[in-house]
Design goal:
By secondary structure, the chain is mostly helical.
Length: about 80
């Protein structure tokens, strides 16, 4: 059985928040390269959380830019934050 959109969004956001905790810890201890990698993962998971909460059933991809642009379909505020080439 599929989760409700808001529940799926919360699940992804919880994962992003857990990763953020570890990224902060690693950065404080000098693990900058791993903290940077996690920062990308955190952004990706947070954007996917938003998209799932909006009712998207499948969100594929790892590009924070692409996910941000896709998110602007639901909330125009995202378009102010996305890099546009």
């Amino acid at each position: 059985m599929r989760r409700e959109p808001i529940e799926e969004g919360k699940r992804w956001l919880e994962q992003a928040m857990e990763d953020l905790k570890w990224a902060k810890d690693l950065a404080e201890r000098g693990g900058y390269h791993i903290a940077c990698f996690l920062a990308q993962q955190i952004g990706e998971k947070a954007l996917k959380a938003f998209l799932y909460s909006q009712g998207e059933e499948i969100v594929i991809g790892h590009s924070v830019e692409r996910l941000c642009n896709f998110s602007s379909k639901f909330d125009k505020e995202f378009s102010k934050k996305c890099f546009v080439a």
